[in-house]
Amino acid sequence: MTTVLTLDLGTNGARAGVFDVEKKRIVAKGEAAYPTRHLPPNRAEQDPEDWWRALGVVVPQVLAEAGNPEIAAITTATFSSTVVVCDRQGVPVGPAILWMDARASAEAEASHGVKHPVLAYAGGSNAVEWLVPKAMWLARHQPEVWNRTEVICEALDFVNFRLTGEWAGSLMNATCKWNYDSRSRAFCHDLYEAFGVPELAEKLPQRIVDIGGVIAPLDPAVAAQWGLRGEPIVVQGGIDAHMGTFGADCVEPGTMLFIGGTSNVHLTQVPDDGMPVEGVWGPYPHALTPGLRMIEGGQVSAGSILKWLSQDIFGVEDGALSDLLQAAEAIEPEMTGLLALDFWMGNRTPYRDARLRGAFLGLSLSHGRAHIYRAAITAVALGAANVVFDLERQGVAVDRIVMAGGIMRNPVWLQATIDAIGKPVGIAEDDNLSLYGNAVAAAVGLGLWPDLTTAASALRAPVRHAEPDPARHAQYRRLLAQYREAVDTLTPILHALSDGPSKEPAA
Q: Which end of the chain is more exposed for a tag (fewer CB within 10 A), N or C?
């Protein structure tokens, strides 16, 4: 029996799973939480030591639940763009800056004016979430922390260092978030110099390891601390959602992993043929698998809109949500008399416009909570369909979709998304696709399969089949035309509202 340990650090906590390679399933899993500190106006921080403490709680629990088997390999996935600053021994010199932290907006905006071939991998500029703008912010606003920083890295790199004592960056994270040149396998010193942080290249982990590559053996002290049997190797992982593509077997061009939750993520790959794809993050060469380019589309706000509307505005608690869902489902999408835009926190794909804002159009005194909630669901579903259709318009094939995430807990939203896209989908029966994806990488690191694509096909998580409703899809296609027209018409107004009151003196 070959058993691997799969770890996943998310925004709210650390998950761990024990995966039986022969049985092709997770035999034990658990989770331990850690806190986030939110600071005005737009900062979010965590203590990296809390991550390690959480792993020290959950890993022994899942090992015990699985019967304390010998572990052959360990692979970790983490939230991306959660940035750690520490010394060479892995001791933090400041708090970790969370992915959602928006303090570096000016630094991200400054990247728009820089011309460099590698920025084409990122759609021409950096996003505020990513490591490079955050490094620029630290250098400019907290030079005392920046000067003490010997290593700046992702949460993934920090955990892998604690596991092995070796600094190693993931090719995925480096390509997607560090402006690393994945084609020449080199840091872009000239680009970092243009950003005003020429020393950044030396502060990043120098060894870049492909997903499925072996980093080093597990530190025996960690094995003893966790009560772990065996002499496992530590295998490189990557970004949590992206590792889920292996768990869903959505690696080949034409397949897409759709993760619906607080925000929505659309992950797919295209041939490395130079075809431009606009309105997305990427295409990133070789970030997921060699010879292909990875695309990341997304909706910044999705389930967060529905939660805001039901809980904060309507005052509906989770236990009473079923009544609202039942009432909303009874209303046909076109019969609400409403059109909404899902841009509460801007748009990532396909408009790539952080200044767009949400809207409800057509409100009257006859509208009730169910009409408004149904219109919000429709807006989020139309936003998802708009991503898929825009990719197809640009020549990106989307033939097979697997859905996962918090969307599974809202059946009306789930079916609306399927109907709006209008394609059959596979629905993941286990919401731990990152844990499955880590197991795929671990199996490749152990030499059990020759590559990630083959291993993903063999070890993929089970899915159930779901079909769209043709009549509902026809409604959504008509509504999508109105949705797009509304975006074109309202963009100047939404920009003005986002920018705030005019600074011009009154006449």
A: C
